[in-house]
Write a structure and sequence with these properties.
440 residues; single chain; 7-stranded parallel beta sheet; 13% strand; 41% helix; alpha/beta; TIM Barrel; globular; 12 strands; 14 helices
């Protein structure tokens, strides 16, 4: 039952440290221990993902043992008074589906809905919130556009087909879950919405930034929330496709009532106009961080400045405030949840056996204050999740990047608390940002 990431990891050069996600932090076997850590932290909810290939290892076959695992996991979370927020798709497409065309194939959207129905029937009310997709932008543009993620395809047309079929899969999955559980089921989707600022106040740079937003954000926000693709998206990609893969009735299916919109945020971009190049083609290309978003035709992303995280990303909390406020003003009836926010650093275990990650603490504090500022400005934000509980397999970076509040010794699987975990625990249990010097 391999996923596209299992296949991708086997190809030399795709993963920095030549590793795979086969074991990672081994939560499959250690979930009881990790739920104990969550209890110590004091969190009230936990985002987790279902592995589609574990449930449907081949077409038409359901793995009951896979389902039983998630039943046990969700029961354990519920027993610990932690709400399970379940993501149905976090990039691990079954290889059998990729062999049939992957997200370029419209049929995958229906297969995803069938899988969603299986999980809704099996897990039912054990789930607090159902998230259909995590970051479809990365699936489409990194997996099928630039090729730096699985399945490693580099094609503008493939990326745009994947965009639409992911949108359609979202809509069909919402319908499938509601058909099983009724209108009271809480449904969501998690989007990473690149936050771009123009390099100057010039009309050209502002136009370039608006175009970037169309091609990286509105391709999902428009269909999912407004039931439309912005006409400029269609027009500016005419050289790539006539969008005939959008069928009558698709947009009505894609637009679904949601309990909230999940928002993932890490950093910001600065964009300027590239003279002489029309605002059209996607121009996917690999950036120095192996997860760079594609260059959008006629635009250029400037190198980040300031103190960068281990991922090479900047730290710009105002971007989170502006993103949340902007979304709430555009969609005033849609609550927001920050579903991922965090930073990777080159953590070291000190002589005292602990990890003193002051930069991660600083990042979290400034970004949580940015959420508070968004609330002050009227944004309807209902929750915040730090990324992530544990160090883990970080896709093309393998195990070379650590985002966790809790360190994983991959040789022994021992969990080691970082200062950021201690700080975060104080925050969630008190509801107040810990004072300066709290960790000293």
């Amino acid at each position: 039952m391999p996923s596209i990431w299992d296949t991708y990891c086997e190809q030399p050069g795709n993963i920095v440290d030549h590793s795979s996600g086969a074991v990672a932090c081994d939560q499959y076997h250690r979930y009881a221990e990790d739920i104990g850590l969550m209890k110590q932290l004091g969190v009230s909810a936990y985002r987790l993902s279902i592995a589609w290939p574990r449930i449907v290892p081949e077409p038409g076959k359901v793995n009951d043992k896979g389902i039983e695992h998630y039943v046990r996991l969700l029961d354990a979370l519920r027993d610990a008074d932690i709400k399970p927020v379940v993501t149905l798709y976090h990039w691990d497409l079954p290889q059998w589906a990729q062999d049939r065309g992957g997200w370029e194939n419209r049929d995958v959207s229906q297969w995803f809905a069938e899988y969603a129905a299986i999980m809704a029937h099996a897990l039912g009310e054990k789930v607090d919130t159902w998230t259909t997709l995590n970051e479809p932008f990365c699936v489409a543009f990194l997996g099928y556009g630039s090729g730096v993620h699985a399945p490693g395809i580099s094609s503008d047309l493939a990326a745009l087909k994947a965009v639409h079929h992911l949108n359609l899969a979202h809509g069909l999955a919402v319908e499938a879950v509601r058909a099983e559980l009724g209108d009271g089921a809480r449904l969501s989707v998690t989007l990473n919405l690149p936050m771009a600022y123009p390099a100057s106040d010039s009309a050209a740079d502002r136009e370039a930034t608006e175009h970037r937003n169309l091609m990286t954000r509105d391709v999902f926000l428009g269909p999912m929330i407004e039931g439309r693709y912005d006409p400029r998206i269609i027009e500016r990609t005419r050289a790539i496709t006539d969008w005939s893969f959008v069928h009558d009735g698709d947009l009505a299916v894609i637009r679904q009532r949601l309990a909230n919109l999940g928002v993932n945020f890490y950093s910001t971009d600065t964009v300027r106009r590239r003279p002489g190049i029309p605002l059209n083609a996607l121009e996917p290309r690999v950036g120095r961080d192996r997860e760079a978003i594609p260059a959008v035709g006629g635009t250029e992303t400037l190198a980040p400045t300031g103190e960068l995280t281990a991922m090479g990303w900047n730290q710009d909390p105002r971007g989170l405030t502006d993103l949340l406020v902007g979304l709430s003003r555009r969609f005033p009836d849609l609550p927001l949840v920050v579903t991922e926010n965090g930073s990777a650093w080159d953590d070291e275990v000190g002589d005292d056996g602990l990890v003193h990650d002051a930069m991660r603490v600083s990042y979290l504090e400034r970004h949580i204050k940015a959420v508070a500022e968004a609330l002050r400005q009227g944004a309807d934000v209902r929750g915040y999740y730090a990324w992530s509980l544990l160090d883990n397999f970080e896709w093309a970076w393998g195990y070379t990047k650590r985002f966790g509040l809790i360190r994983v010794d991959y040789g022994t699987q021992r969990r080691i608390w970082k200062d950021s975990a201690r700080w975060y625990s104080k925050l969630v249990q008190s509801g107040v940002i810990p004072p300066d010097g709290y960790l000293q």
